[in-house]
C-alpha cells in the first residue's frame, strides 16, 4: 500500500483481492516482484505459422499501414 500512496494510485475496492499473489492486467501478470506475459499470449505467438513475405511480417508487427 505504500507504493500505491507514493504514486497516487487508486483502486475500486469491490474489485480488489488483497490476498492475490499474482494479478493479470493488460496482457501481463504482475506479482512476486515480477512482470510476465500471460501464457496464452505467448502460446498464440509460438503456434503462429512462420511468415514468408515481408507484408506478413509487417502485419504481424502491426506496421502494415505505417507508411
Model description:
With 67 residues, the protein is of the alpha+beta class. The chain is 33% helix and 18% strand. It contains three helices and three strands; from the N terminus they run H-E-E-E-H-H. A hairpin with a 2-residue loop joins strand 1 (22-25) and strand 2. It starts with a helix and ends in a 6-residue tail after the last helix. The mean pLDDT is 80.
Characteristic key phrases:
three-stranded antiparallel sheet; single chain; 67 residues; alpha+beta; elongated; 33% helix; 3 helices; 3 strands
Q: What is the percentage of strand-forming residues?
A: 15-25%
Count of helical stretches: 3
Average predicted confidence as pLDDT = 80
Q: List the secondary-structure elements in sequence, H or E.
A: HEEEHH
